[in-house]
Amino acid sequence: MAASQLPIEALPAWALLNDVEFTSAEVRSIDGKGLGLVAKNNIPGVSDDASNTAAIIRIPRELVLSAEAVEAYAKVDQNFRQLLEVAGHQSSVNAKLSVLSREYDELSEKASALPFWSDLLGEAGMMEDWILADALYRSRCLELPHAGHAMVPGLDMANHSPNYLARYDETPDGDVVLLPSSESGVSSGEEITISYGEAKSAAEMLFSYGFIDQVSAVKELALHLDALPDDPLGKAKLHIYKGPRTVQLSLTGGDFYWHSPLLYLLILNEEDGLAFRVVQDTSGGRELRLLWQDEDVTGRTGEFESLIQDHPLCQIFKLRAVAVLEERVSSQLDRITAKISYGATEQSQAANQPRVECMLAAEKLRDLEAQILQGAAAALENEKARLLLDARVVTYLGSMEDTQNEQASNQASNEDDEFS
């Protein structure tokens, strides 16, 4: 189903028909940026009474595509509601391009019993539309104060700047308004910029919006985590944990921080007091439950950092977590510092070579993430050294060494007896 596209010159007419008010702004071409919002007149700054501040743009609530709007639409559209039900309300907008094809196939399979959606998704070119929809959402989505993540037509024409001149908000009626963000206001002909998110990492900015904020102070990186090799409980841990399977690394003011509720679950073993049980629920079905020290903690899988605090081996658990994270950081650092290859042969290299601006952005991201990983590696090495000096860790490792020596001695004695 081919989607019709309108030129940007049609925006004023579209805005008029849909009650979008471009009161003090218009869309113009910005040197080096493409299109953007420009002030049509001098816009006064924020007054003492914020409620009297005139809106630069006003977008009716009915045009905002948010989770609330999706739910409301599903109530009146039978076909759309059926699609949400078979899809399990799972959105694909957070998926990477590499899994979009698989997600589209899964959605098509689930919707095969729905005549309307089966015919639509079976049309030629729909896979390309699916990828385009994901890209459109990522590049246009903003986080509103009340409605949360949403697409707001008109407002999405504003470019990002760390020194933004306007901010977006919601009225009591649910309309979205663009307001001046400072007392100085905006001069006529000046570009009106907003912030796409001051806490977004370089990777998120590049992946979602196609550029990296060069002056951003945010130095964060998320690494994927998987079950530890040869862990017999690994699959069960990943099944029962519902949070993100990542570890968040950040450098702030020269200090290193990491956060990962999952990691503390991954490093625990059955001999530590971790256990899984399959029990029968009230409806007669079977469900997996997680126990820690014989206490059911199924609903607290993300709280193991605090659950282990009173355990005698708490410092040992922390040492395990640091050691696992250090290895994960090291492998990631090796991967991103390796030379990028865009083609296996000289003939194919030219065809696979990305645009210059894409290469520069990728290299910039790689340099930023390498700085974070290098800082993380140094900090984790220091943290591991500190934990190895802890009296409880020294005692525990000493006892483990004695046990291993005793087992080796007994094994050697048994071998001598067998030889005799």
From TrEMBL:
CDD domains: SET_LSMT. Signal peptide: none annotated. Residues 23-197 form the SET domain. One of its GO terms (cellular component) is nucleus. It comes from the Eukaryota. PROSITE patterns: SET. SUPFAM superfamilies: SET domain. GO terms for molecular function: protein-lysine N-methyltransferase activity. InterPro entries: SET_dom, SET_dom_sf, SETD3_SETD6_MTase. PANTHER family: SET DOMAIN-CONTAINING PROTEIN 8 (PTHR13271:SF76), UNCHARACTERIZED PUTATIVE METHYLTRANSFERASE (PTHR13271). This is SET domain-containing protein 8.
